[in-house]
Amino acid sequence: MPINECCKLDVVCCDPELSLPDTAALMRKHHIGDVIVVETRSGTRTPVGIVTDRDIVVETMALQLDATLFTAGDIMNTPLVTVKENAGFVETLRLMRTHGVRRMPVVSENGALYGMVTADDIVRLLALELSLITEAMSGQMAHERRLRK
To answer: Which pTM was predicted?
Structure first.
């Protein structure tokens, strides 16, 4: 199954110039822990970085810096690790493991933002699939018992 079948399409984004307090406000408003920083290139939103709630804490508050002096572009993680929309689960998980990330923007062939996939999304989907397999196995045994009385 390609990753574009399980990624979230409603990605919260911001420009690199957005102030850090406004970036944090976006996270609070949408109940999320990250914002994708995008630039418009050739009429498409191209992801260039990611800012997480942890980045804000570690890069400003922990250092006792004034967060109002920074923008999303100042502290975003870049270069951004992305995955193509037609990549499979295993390829996506390998990329996440290799780069030590739990969140990954999904991009189209031309690099435009398509969606977002998280390790949590993949675990949820795999748990559902395992549950369905377990039910099929149990159902097969019950079916066998009925046939072989």
So the answer is: 0.84
